[in-house]
Structures are given as C-alpha cells and as structure tokens.
Design a protein that fits this description.
Blueprint: H1 2-18, H2 29-40, E1 43-53, E2 59-70, E3 74-81, E4 85-90, E5 93-98, E6 103-108, H3 109-112, H4 117-122, E7 131-139, E8 142-149, E9 156-164, E10 167-175, E11 180-190, E12 208-210
Length: 215
C-alpha cells in the first residue's frame, strides 16, 4: 500500500543516517604540531635574531643573542648586540639586567609571565588554558600556528609560531599597541642536559636592584 511504502522509505532513510560510518574529527595540523612540540619539550637552546617593527612595519630595533629554556619556568635570554641585556628566570623569580642602565629589576615569576611566550614555552599547564588557538597556515615553507591570549589584560594581542618540521624556528609577537617583534632561531637543540648555574643570575657589583625588597 502507498502508505506502507512511504513509511518504509522513511524508516530506511532514518536507518541509513544512523548507520553511516562515523567520521572522526581531524585535528588541525598546526595545533597538533604545537601540542606535540610542547609535550616533548624539556629543554631548548638556540641563537636568535630579533627585529622589532612599529605599527607601519618599519624596523625600529634589531638585536642578536642566545636563548636557553627549561621546563618548568626556567629560561635565559642573553642579548649581545646592540646592547647587553639579560633576562633570567630561576623557577621562582625573573631578573632583567640592562647593562647600559646599570640596573637589575626583579619580579616574582608568576607576576612576570602571564600570557607571554615564556609562559607558553616553559609553562607546565596545557597551552589552551591560557591561549586560544586562532588557526594555522603554511608560508615560507613553514607551518605557522597563531594563538591569542584568553585574558584581555595581557600585553600581547597575538603570537605566531613557525615550525620547520618538528623544530620551532620562528616566533612573532604583536602587542596591544600594534608593535611586532620577530624572532628567528638557528642552531636549535632540544633535550640537552643543562646545569642549574645557567639559570642563576649574579648581580654585578655597583648595579642598582629594583624590586628585591618586595619579594
């Protein structure tokens, strides 16, 4: 009967949908690369060049140096040119030494990181607890991953990480004022055993220390 045929067709259609093969969600390749990188990262050393651009993407400052990272919460950025500057975190405190000013500023680590690249690369929490994944794309033979801070109080508007295979070789930061900082890493090595002295900062004689009394 026609009615039975229509009902049978509806049942067949419904069952067809119910028994379609399940399609697994395919993770974004950029997000997967970032998560694998952070899960496997213990220590990292590299040389770097840093260019700072204004809102119009005009170069305003260039620098070179070396970076050393160790999870959780330890890092050292040694700037060599054009001015000597050192940023060291020992797991509890962050030291910023500016040689041209004869000055060292000290802050608690949890106050100094926030939604920053240092928190991203040396933190012990899941990256997506502090950062929002904004997408990925391929440019200049690199896989780029873009993140944004979940907090509106952070200094950065976005962070882009460029991967050459499993290695992080580029990092771009855009702050709330439109300034862009571009870092290029070379000689990247992961997994090296690092002595504790790497993350110890000895204040040079005669240098003013700011913030130490507040710790």
């Amino acid at each position: 009967m026609p009615g039975h045929k229509r009902a049978g067709a509806c049942v067949a259609l419904l069952l067809g949908y119910l028994f379609l093969p399940a399609v697994a969600d395919t993770p974004d390749p950029g997000l997967a690369r970032l998560q694998d990188f952070l899960a496997e990262l213990d220590t990292l050393t590299a040389d770097f060049t840093q260019d700072v651009m204004n809102r119009e993407l005009e170069l305003v400052e260039s620098a070179t140096g070396q970076v050393v990272l160790q999870k959780p919460g330890r890092f050292r950025w040694d700037y060599r040119e054009p001015f000597e500057r050192v940023i060291v975190a020992d797991g509890e405190r962050v030291w910023l030494y500016e040689a041209d000013l004869d000055q060292v500023t000290v802050r608690r680590l949890d106050e100094g990181l926030g939604e920053t690249p240092a928190a991203l690369l040396t933190g012990s929490v899941d990256v997506l607890e502090r950062f929002e994944f904004l997408g990925s794309d391929s440019q200049e033979e690199l896989l780029w991953v873009q993140l944004g801070p979940r907090s509106e109080s952070g200094d950065f508007d976005s962070i882009r990480l460029g991967f050459d295979g499993p290695l992080l070789t580029r990092l771009e930061l855009r702050d709330r004022l439109g300034q862009t900082t571009r870092l290029a890493f070379s000689g990247v090595e992961q997994g090296a055993v690092l002595p504790d002295t790497v993350f110890t900062f000895d204040v040079p004689a005669g240098v003013d220390v700011i913030g130490e009394d507040e710790l």
